[in-house]
Amino acid sequence: MKKFLITMLLLGAFVGCMKSPIDQVAETITEKSLMKPITKLSSDEFMGRATGTIGELKTVDYLVSQLEEYGLQGGAEDSGFVQDVPLTWSKDGSGCSGADP
Question: Angle 90-37-42 (CA atoms, 0-180°, nearest 5)?
Protein backbone atom coordinates (compact mmCIF):
# COMPACT_ATOMS: atom_id res chain seq x y z
CA MET A 1 0.00 0.00 0.00
CA LYS A 2 2.87 2.33 0.85
CA LYS A 3 4.54 1.69 -2.53
CA PHE A 4 1.26 2.40 -4.28
CA LEU A 5 0.86 5.75 -2.54
CA ILE A 6 4.46 6.74 -3.29
CA THR A 7 4.00 5.72 -6.93
CA MET A 8 0.78 7.73 -7.19
CA LEU A 9 2.39 10.79 -5.59
CA LEU A 10 5.35 10.62 -7.97
CA LEU A 11 3.08 10.09 -10.93
CA GLY A 12 0.89 13.01 -9.85
CA ALA A 13 3.94 15.24 -9.45
CA PHE A 14 5.25 14.20 -12.87
CA VAL A 15 1.93 14.78 -14.63
CA GLY A 16 1.46 18.06 -12.77
CA CYS A 17 4.77 19.34 -14.15
CA MET A 18 3.88 18.55 -17.76
CA LYS A 19 2.59 21.41 -19.86
CA SER A 20 -0.36 20.96 -22.14
CA PRO A 21 0.09 21.66 -25.87
CA ILE A 22 -2.07 24.76 -25.43
CA ASP A 23 0.20 26.08 -22.67
CA GLN A 24 3.27 25.36 -24.79
CA VAL A 25 1.85 27.31 -27.75
CA ALA A 26 0.58 30.10 -25.51
CA GLU A 27 4.14 30.72 -24.32
CA THR A 28 5.19 31.50 -27.91
CA ILE A 29 2.60 34.27 -28.30
CA THR A 30 4.24 37.61 -27.66
CA GLU A 31 3.55 41.19 -28.59
CA LYS A 32 6.27 40.88 -31.24
CA SER A 33 4.79 37.69 -32.73
CA LEU A 34 1.35 39.32 -32.91
CA MET A 35 2.64 42.55 -34.43
CA LYS A 36 4.77 40.89 -37.12
CA PRO A 37 1.90 39.98 -39.53
CA ILE A 38 0.03 43.20 -38.76
CA THR A 39 3.11 45.27 -39.57
CA LYS A 40 3.75 43.21 -42.70
CA LEU A 41 0.19 43.46 -44.05
CA SER A 42 -0.09 47.18 -43.32
CA SER A 43 3.15 47.97 -45.13
CA ASP A 44 3.30 49.71 -48.50
CA GLU A 45 4.35 46.38 -50.02
CA PHE A 46 0.68 45.32 -50.06
CA MET A 47 -0.51 48.54 -51.72
CA GLY A 48 -3.64 48.93 -49.62
CA ARG A 49 -4.96 45.38 -50.21
CA ALA A 50 -8.05 46.61 -52.10
CA THR A 51 -10.21 44.09 -53.92
CA GLY A 52 -9.14 43.40 -57.50
CA THR A 53 -5.67 44.89 -57.13
CA ILE A 54 -2.15 43.50 -57.11
CA GLY A 55 -2.12 44.33 -53.40
CA GLU A 56 -5.00 41.92 -52.86
CA LEU A 57 -3.14 39.15 -54.71
CA LYS A 58 0.00 39.77 -52.65
CA THR A 59 -2.07 39.69 -49.46
CA VAL A 60 -3.73 36.39 -50.38
CA ASP A 61 -0.35 34.87 -51.27
CA TYR A 62 1.10 36.01 -47.93
CA LEU A 63 -1.84 34.67 -45.90
CA VAL A 64 -1.83 31.32 -47.71
CA SER A 65 1.93 30.97 -47.16
CA GLN A 66 1.45 31.63 -43.45
CA LEU A 67 -1.31 29.02 -43.16
CA GLU A 68 0.84 26.48 -44.99
CA GLU A 69 3.81 27.34 -42.74
CA TYR A 70 1.61 26.51 -39.73
CA GLY A 71 0.95 23.11 -41.31
CA LEU A 72 -2.75 23.70 -41.86
CA GLN A 73 -4.77 22.20 -44.70
CA GLY A 74 -7.22 24.22 -46.74
CA GLY A 75 -10.93 23.53 -46.78
CA ALA A 76 -11.77 24.71 -50.30
CA GLU A 77 -12.92 22.25 -52.95
CA ASP A 78 -9.36 21.96 -54.30
CA SER A 79 -8.05 21.50 -50.71
CA GLY A 80 -6.63 25.00 -50.93
CA PHE A 81 -7.32 28.10 -48.88
CA VAL A 82 -8.80 30.36 -51.55
CA GLN A 83 -12.33 30.45 -52.89
CA ASP A 84 -13.30 32.61 -55.84
CA VAL A 85 -16.20 34.90 -55.01
CA PRO A 86 -17.64 37.14 -57.73
CA LEU A 87 -17.59 40.87 -57.08
CA THR A 88 -21.17 41.99 -57.63
CA TRP A 89 -20.94 45.55 -56.38
CA SER A 90 -18.30 48.11 -55.48
CA LYS A 91 -18.59 51.67 -54.26
CA ASP A 92 -16.70 53.10 -57.23
CA GLY A 93 -18.53 50.95 -59.79
CA SER A 94 -15.51 48.93 -60.88
CA GLY A 95 -16.11 45.23 -61.28
CA CYS A 96 -19.85 45.59 -60.91
CA SER A 97 -22.16 42.95 -62.27
CA GLY A 98 -25.19 43.89 -60.22
CA ALA A 99 -27.20 46.79 -58.96
CA ASP A 100 -26.35 49.04 -56.03
CA PRO A 101 -27.30 47.06 -52.88
Answer: 45
As to burial, measured by CB atoms within 10 angstroms (0-12 exposed, 13-18 middle, 19+ buried), residue 77 is: exposed
pTM of the model: 0.63
Rg for the chain (alpha carbons), in Å? 24
pLDDT, tens only, 46-86 = 999 988 899 999 999 999 999 999 899 999 888 899 998 88
Dist. CA 13–CA 4, nearest whole Å: 14
* φ and ψ of 52, to 5 deg: 80, 10
The total of other beta-carbon atoms located within 10 Å of residue 56's CB is 15
**Can you say whether the dihedral through the CA atoms of 47, 52, 54, 58 is positive or negative?**
positive
